[in-house]
Amino acid sequence: MPGLGLHEKIICILAENYNKIYSLEKLTNMVFPLSELTHAESYIAAERENQAMVLDALLFLFENGQIFLDPITDESSMRR
Fold it and tell me: What is the H or E stretch that residue 10 is in?
């Protein structure tokens, strides 16, 4: 998905498996693979920053009616 923005990447991932529900952690790892980071502190800091960006994008997409986001579990999908 090179060249796509964050919102587009998320929509593509969710649309690939329309009926699947993704946790914030799973979706973040799919959008921002962190396998190249080896230091635990760097990994945790990057993971938190990436989760915040993905959550902001999910909220935007949810508010615009493009996805479903469960506010209790932070799980998202294309359908309820």
Answer: helix 6-16
d(CA 19, CA 79): 7
pTM of the model: 0.85
Helices (H) and strands (E) in the chain, counts: 3, 2
Q: How far, rounded to the nearest angstrom, does the alpha carbon of residue 77 sit from its chain's CA centroid?
A: 10
Q: pLDDT tens per residue, the chain (80 residues)?
A: 667 899 999 999 999 988 999 999 999 999 988 665 556 667 788 889 999 999 999 999 999 999 999 989 989 999 77
